[in-house]
Amino acid sequence: MPSTCALCSAPATAETAVAPRDDTLPLCDTCQAGVQDGPQEAPHWQCLHEAIWSTDPATQVLAWRLLKGLETEVWARDLLDIAYLEPDVQSWAEAGLSDAPDVIHRDSNGTVLAQGDTVVLIKDLPVKGAGFTAKRGTAVRGISLVADNAEHIEGRVEGQRIVILTQFVKKS
């Protein structure tokens, strides 16, 4: 067994299987606990900034799953937005998260929205805390879906990342 953790390079204490395949990775106690019980926000997880870009698919899968567990953190969500996994690696990573309920995001017309879509605002929306109003007709490109709320999406308007209610957008 290699002596360092595949995710954070700390001394490894155990081999961990990356389901549903038979691949195993050496992990430290902290990373092992995060994989088993879900990661808790801590400075330790900044190691995922490098792990997600690993050339080893099993390391990418574990890093992606841990980042999904930290999606309430802005840095983790941003890292997931820019991370690219090969399609077979992506499906492997998602296969391990099948117990999460599927949330379907729909625009004001009932059209299903997907990660990365472009939407148009159908109403002027005051943006709380930012001091501006997002005007009707504004295109919001590359939206992110809020995983646990079908009524919320996120996107950049006037350079600021904001949460937008799906009832005020239509897919373009």
Automatic annotation (TrEMBL):
It comes from the Bacteria. Pfam families: YjdM (PF03831). Signal peptide: none annotated. Residues 105-171 form the Protein YjdM C-terminal domain. This is Protein PhnA. It comes from Primorskyibacter sedentarius.
